[in-house]
Amino acid sequence: MGADRRRRHRHPSVQARSARDLQPREDVGRGQPCLCGVKARLIAVGRAKAGPEAELFRHYNARLRPPLELQELPEGQGSAAEIRRREATAILAAMAPNTLLVAMDLGGKAPTSEALSTLTQRWMEAARPIAFLIGGAEGLDETVLTRAGHLLSLGPLTWPHMLVRGMLAEQLFRAQCIRENHPYHRAWRPG
Ligand SMILES: C[S@@+](CC[C@H](N)C(=O)[O-])C[C@H]1O[C@@H](n2cnc3c(N)ncnc32)[C@H](O)[C@@H]1O
């Protein structure tokens, strides 16, 4: 990293920061399920078992101020279409009507981390409850995709839904660091 770029990361407001700031903070976000003042939940199909995927989510979610409130929904039964339809009914019932729904979907827009940071700023300014959504093994029903205010992709590859929880939490943490000019995010790319 060149000196110019290093200087850019050392914004006066973050000069005193250290790696310790990346540790989970016990004193923030208590009882406030929100993303910087706006309610943020993660609605996810399936129940996580203890293991590396659950640990990955826990690791990054604990670094969000405040953390996402996780709401797990049971997996649907039946054919693939029935599963999606049943899960959609539960998903739509879990949200207040004014919720800004950000659905994780391969077919959505795949922003850069910087663009995602800008998007999160915009979502916060909308001052509506925010819910991120991760589908189950059969994906999300059309009715849910239509209801979503934003379809967010992590790229065209299909990832296991339990892994997507941790990947989303990491990207939201990265977005938080970009908004705060924290050096966790290194923007450098080869020219
Ligand atoms: C195993 S995937 C479902 C695959 C399904 N065939 C589809 O195309 O949606 C389970 C869930 O993980 C999330 N997911 C998986 N890969 C993703 C990606 N690249 N970007 C965004 N979300 C993804 C989505 O919420 C998806 O509904």
UniProtKB/TrEMBL annotation:
Native source species: Rhodovarius crocodyli
PANTHER family in the cross-refs: METHYLTRANSFERASE (PTHR33603), RIBOSOMAL RNA LARGE SUBUNIT METHYLTRANSFERASE H (PTHR33603:SF1)
Keyword Ribosomal protein assigned: no
SUPFAM superfamilies: alpha/beta knot
Compositionally biased tracts (Basic and acidic residues): 18-29
Any one cellular-component term (Gene Ontology): cytoplasm
A GO MF label: rRNA (pseudouridine-N3-)-methyltransferase activity
Full protein name: Ribosomal RNA large subunit methyltransferase H
EC id: 2.1.1.177
Residues annotated as binding S-adenosyl-L-methionine: G135, L154, G155, P156, L157, T158, W159
Subunit structure: Homodimer.
Subcellular location: Cytoplasm
Enzyme class, first EC level, given as a word: transferase
Basic residues composition bias: residue spans: 1-12
Lineage: Bacteria, Pseudomonadati, Pseudomonadota, Alphaproteobacteria, Acetobacterales
Pfam families linked to this entry: SPOUT_MTase
Family in the record: Belongs to the RNA methyltransferase RlmH family.
